[in-house]
Amino acid sequence: MDPKEEIKKSFIAAIWFMFLTFPIMVVRVDTIEHTVTWRWERLIWVGAAFFLLSFIWRRLLDRKLTGPSATDTAPAHAAPRWKHLTADSRLKRPALAAAALFFLAVPLLFSWNKTILVTNALIYVVIALGLNIVVGLAGQLVLGYVAFFAVGAYGYALLNLHYAVGFWSALPIGAALAALFGLLLGFPVLRLRGDYLAIVTLGFGEIIRIVLENWNELSFGPSGIDNIPPPDFFGLILNLRQTHIAIYYLMVVLTLLTILVVSRLQHSRIGRSWEALREDETAAQAMGIDTTRAKLSAFALGACWAGMGGVVFAAKQKFINPGNFTIWESILVLCIVVLGGMGSITGVVLAALVLVILPEALRVFADYRWLVFGAMLVLVMVFRPEGLVRARRRVYAFEPTESDKTEGP
Amino acid sequence: MTPLLDIRRLTMDFGGLRALEAIDLAVHPAQTVALIGPNGAGKTTLFNCITGIYRATAGDARFQAGEGRCVPLRGLKPNQVTALGICRTFQNIRLFGHMSALENVLIGRHCRTRAGIAGAILRSRRARDEERRAAADSFRLLKKFGLAGHADAPANSLPYGAQRRLEIARAMATEPRLLLLDEPAAGMNPQETRELNRMIVQLREEEGVAILLIEHDMRLVMSLAQHICVVDYGRKIAEGTPGQVRNNPAVIKAYLGEDDNA
Predict the structure, then answer these.
(1) Which residues are paired to B63 by β-bridges?
(2) Between β-strands A27-30 and A35-38, what pairing exists: parallel, antiparallel or unpaired?
(3) Does any CB of chain A come closer than 8 Å to the CB of residue B3?
(4) Which domain holds residue A57?
(5) What's chain B's Rg over C-alpha atoms?
């Protein structure tokens, strides 16, 4: 492109960002001293940085559109090799084994706090895989997914408080309860598609939270429920630290179970009907799929994982209140599904780990932590809109014979 | 002989607009009937009424669903109509774009298979056997339509003609007794049209399926149809064998317009 044009574009970008970042970069208001400091020198730095960055940005965009060109050899080499590695099925088993070993060794390798962080990430893996059924496979944009998580958590807390129901019986009950709420949400929204569905489910999530906040007799309102007992592991008496490690391993098992069940569902007659629903609802119905059943089963089977995650969450936290179940949780889980690559189990697992652990890792950026986090999300979506891992189609085991190859035009 | 599909005085209104007015139409088993008429005449609307996408305002359509069962179609949902043995293709191709060609056909097998949630999670022997059989059946269908080489390719990556054929293969996977084809040759070049013609003839001979065809390519219509029904402005204006319809003055008028000086 014309270099003059390039410079002009970068110049405009720089001016624009100087304007945008002006309030946080330049102005500093001291509310105690009642003084305002103007840090004009920063404006110059911002301008210079974005002037240069915009060149790089456009270059990367160009490359994305045209594909890697032959001239820049280094990235061109790297990309196919990376693809080659992920596509090679021989490496799949060793890679899985390495991942399994790593996850088994986490409590030994890392501190107690970090183990809890990974436990959290695994809870998000489980609930994101649930949402992946609804959003990624069935294509129903649900924004109030945290409601099912709350149902599971409060289900365990309240059943335990009133009826002394133990953790292990609460786990399936929480899943069933959340599935029931999934159906409850599913019935009224059967006719809704796209943005309308998103708005209604957003409302559903908020209703659940507001009910929990205000129905003091049931949920003890904003003060929440305290002293939720941790799971009982074969009657062993464990100290706090050991309990957390046990919960960690429980989450590892639960994650494996989720992956197994969800992948089996995905590659079954039911999973195919969900995907057909996502691709074209009218055509799916015309091809004989009962869309009512398909939607309701997706809602129920998606919600039950959030319920299970909620039960573990309550047992791990020992204390829950409605503040744990805000819209931001729904959005984070949705981000995980979209960032991971809709419908891709590997992608969702990766994204959940990244999105939960990254904000902690970004603590070095202190105040700018969420800014950097947001910028990274934007970058991934611009350069890999299909998500970190593209959902791979299942290849069915048929060897086309010679006659097949010649038959087609 | 009782007709396979018997449509009587079917009327469809959209608000104040009458899209179809008292249409009578019969399709006999193994017969090919063509539905022709200018754009906007109501042909696709009739398809939508038969397949349950629209609910007809008045009149009825009855279908011989086998074993002597005569089922009224009005009020049924599209998936119920498909389960009875009527399946369709769409004028503007509506494949499941991101799914592979084989998976598209497998969706067609959905209503003829039973495996449920428990079967899927536990991978029961029954579910596995059924899945294997469905995949084998679907692959056979792909082969028949010359799509075996595309089995694992995403449907939206297929060439246009192949997508049209895949739609027919997907519809055939539901084991229909009546196949509704909505402009199957639209956008095809003469060679592809001839190929399609051959394929439909073969389908008719091998499967004995009855076909109701909407098509603008008159050569295809004349070569395939045993019976032609002409609609214009939602009304049936003529009906008969290809020879009769071709010489019908009302049809010529509808297609060519009226000559004021005549």
Answers:
(1) B5, B71
(2) antiparallel
(3) no
(4) 3-71
(5) 19
Shortest Cα distance from B1 to chain A (angstroms)? 28
Q: Does B103 touch chain A (CB under 8 A)?
A: yes
- The ipTM of this complex is 0.91
The amino acid at residue A238 is L
The DSSP secondary structure of A258-297, one letter per residue, reads HHHHHHHHHTSHHHHHHHHHHH-HHHHHHTT--HHHHHHH
Return the residue of B nearest to A284 by Cα. B107
The whole domain housing B129 covers 96-174
Please report whether residue A162 resides in a domain. Answer: yes
Residue A289 distance to chain B (closest CA, Å): 6
How close does chain A come to B215, measured CA to CA in Å? 20
Whether residue B107 lies within 8 A of chain A, CB to CB, comes out as yes
Total domains, chain B: 2
A284 with A150, same domain: the answer is: yes
A48-53 long-range CB contacts below 8 Å, 24 or more apart?
A: A48/A14, A50/A10, A50/A13, A50/A14, A50/A16, A50/A17, A50/A18, A51/A10, A51/A11, A51/A13, A51/A14, A52/A10, A53/A13
pLDDT in tens, chain B (262 residues): 789 999 999 999 998 899 999 999 999 999 999 999 988 899 999 999 999 999 999 998 999 988 888 999 988 999 999 999 999 999 999 999 999 999 999 999 999 988 888 888 888 898 999 999 999 999 999 999 999 999 999 999 999 989 999 999 999 999 999 999 999 998 889 999 999 999 999 999 998 999 999 999 999 999 999 999 999 999 999 999 998 998 888 888 888 776 655 4
Tokens linked to B65: 């669903």
State whether B154 and A400 contact (CB < 8 Å): no
Shared domain for B194 and B233, answered yes or no, is yes
Q: Phi, psi at residue B224, to the nearest 5°?
A: -95, -40
The SS3 of residue A320 is strand
My answer on whether A147 and A38 are in the same domain is no
Instruction: Mark which of B157, B174, B191 sits at the end of a domain.
Output: B174
From chain B, pick out residues whose CB is under 8 angstroms from the CB of A258.
Answer: none
